[in-house]
Design a protein that fits this description.
The protein has helices at 4-18, 23-30, 34-46, 57-64, 77-81, 87-118, 130-143, 167-172, 175-188; strands spanning 21-22, 50-54, 71-75, 148-153, 156-161, 193-196, 205-210. It is α+β, with helices and mostly antiparallel strands. The chain folds into two domains: 4-81, Winged helix-like DNA-binding domain superfamily/Winged helix DNA-binding domain (Arc Repressor Mutant, subunit A); 87-217, Muramoyl-pentapeptide Carboxypeptidase, domain 2 (2-Layer Sandwich), CATH 3.30.1380. The longest helix is centred in the middle third of the chain and has 32 residues, at 87-118. The termini are far apart. Pfam families: HTH_20.
Length: 222
């Protein structure tokens, strides 16, 4: 007997392979009760992993006459994501090829373009508080899967990314991290300090934004 998790996975696999597919077809293929399959399907749809579509009229008419059209299920992008992607491998191959043909400068230009596109919707105002500017930047990062937050620490503001969707790629191509820090500093119009990156094995990517600056002229000469 399959566990609840195994049953759910089997249903998702059936939708992936055969969708759009009906609950009846899934239950027949897996040898499960129609009621049990529909319960799982309701949860899968509620979680945004699948969506329902009406069966074509010609198909529905053959089996249901003038009744309500059969509901068919197909996976959403989030549902397909449950089966994994090989985007990292593809990105690594592409960047390796770019480095071979254009050198480090070509990779750096690509990284700059990617980060400028990522932050294209961020336009801090000159009189906007630094922490508010940081929150806008964190919002742009979160929208791209970085799960970013803003904290106050060490006499400044810190932008923390709790996830890195390009972790493996950034580990081999640190130009991505360097470009991000550079663009963030330009948006803020002030010095920033990269403290840690997930790509280097840390738990969080952290950028520190000091709120005070020590000028050389203010220090005593030795």
């Amino acid at each position: 007997m399959m566990s609840e998790g195994d049953t759910r996975r089997s249903i998702l696999t059936q939708i992936l392979r055969n969708g759009p597919v009906s609950a009846t077809d899934i239950s027949d293929t897996l040898g499960l009760s129609a009621a049990g399959v529909r319960r799982h399907l309701d949860n899968i749809v509620a979680e945004g992993l699948a969506e329902t579509v009406e069966a074509p009229r010609s198909t529905a008419a053959g089996s249901r006459g003038r009744g309500r059209p059969a509901r068919l299920f197909r996976l959403t992008d989030a549902g397909r994501g449950q089966f994994g992607h090989d985007y990292d491998s593809l990105a690594l191959l592409a960047l390796r090829a770019l480095r071979e043909t254009g050198g480090d400068a070509a990779v750096a230009r690509f990284a700059d373009q990617r980060m400028e596109e990522l932050f294209s919707g961020v336009d801090p105002e000159a009189d906007e508080p630094v922490d508010e500017q940081a929150r806008n930047i964190a919002g742009a990062l979160t929208a791209r899967g970085y799960a970013a937050t803003v904290d106050h620490a060490g006499g400044g503001v810190q932008i923390c990314r709790h996830h890195c969707p390009v972790q493996d790629v950034a580990h081999e191509f640190p130009e991505l991290c360097a470009a991000e820090h550079r663009v963030v500093a330009e948006l803020l119009g002030r010095h920033t300090q990269p403290l840690a990156t997930i790509a280097d094995g840390n738990g969080i990517c952290t950028t520190h934004i000091p709120l005070t600056t020590i000028h050389p002229s203010s220090q005593k000469e030795s």
